[in-house]
Design a protein that fits this description.
The chain has five helices and eight strands. It is of the alpha/beta class. A hairpin with a 5-residue loop joins strand 3 and strand 4. The chain is elongated, with a radius of gyration of 20 Å. This is tetraacyldisaccharide 4'-kinase.
Length: 210
């Protein structure tokens, strides 16, 4: 899988860069999935494909995105809300994931009045001092816009911090819920991906569920 927003980073492996394997590792792959394909230009996708083909011409290339479905309002018992809850709101995106830009871009597409952000390092665990800092940032946004902002987190961060996120009261905390979807491009689709995967794995039951 390749992150379309920063496909090769600084061409350095972890911990000096974002890459988990060198580009030469593509030589032993059968399939490449370019993720966040909806957030980059066609030219950027063409450039990624060109680089991939230089390493292994026969690779099957697919394209994916995260499709937002709804929000969860963080309470003792979470409440489901439609994506329209973000419209004309002031939002503060808080995340500790590998690709915060993709998260913020997704939120910006939902029609908010203003989006601000706080990015922590991937897998970071929120602490009491972080909750205080987030509340100060949210209060500054309220003073600036005259509207109480909502704080938006990813499902990944919610799963790690369900208890501590309750301490962000009186600010609402929205969890953006989404699913991986394939982007049809150049004859490639979710259906063709599943069929190819069945073929490569030698699975007899073609009702493969992904």
């Amino acid at each position: 899988m390749i992150n379309g927003l920063m496909p090769w980073g600084n061409h350095r492996l972890l911990p000096l860069g974002p890459m988990r394997e060198p580009l030469t590792a593509l030589g032993r792959a059968n399939i490449v999935v370019v993720h966040h394909a909806d957030l980059v230009s066609e030219q950027a996708l063409d450039n990624i494909e060109s680089t991939v083909r230089e390493i292994k011409e026969s690779l099957h290339i697919f394209y994916s995105r995260m499709a937002a479905s709804h929000f969860l309002l963080v309470k003792n018992t979470p409440i489901s809300m439609p994506l329209t809850a973000a419209v004309n709101k002031v939002l503060l995106c808080v995340s500790a994931i590998g690709s915060p830009n993709a998260f913020v871009k997704c939120i910006e597409k939902l029609g908010p009045l203003h989006v601000d952000r706080i990015d922590f390092s991937d897998h970071y665990l929120f602490q009491a001092k972080d909750i205080y800092m987030i509340k100060v940032k949210a209060q500054n946004l309220e003073d600036r816009f005259g509207l109480k902002p909502a704080i938006v987190v990813t499902e990944k961060d919610y799963d790690r911090h369900q208890g501590i996120l309750l301490h962000l009261h009186p600010f609402d905390v929205f969890v953006l819920c989404s699913r991986l979807r394939f982007e049809p491009r150049r004859g490639c689709s979710e259906d063709s991906f599943k069929k190819l995967l069945v073929q490569l794995l030698g699975v007899r039951d073609h009702r493969l569920s992904i």
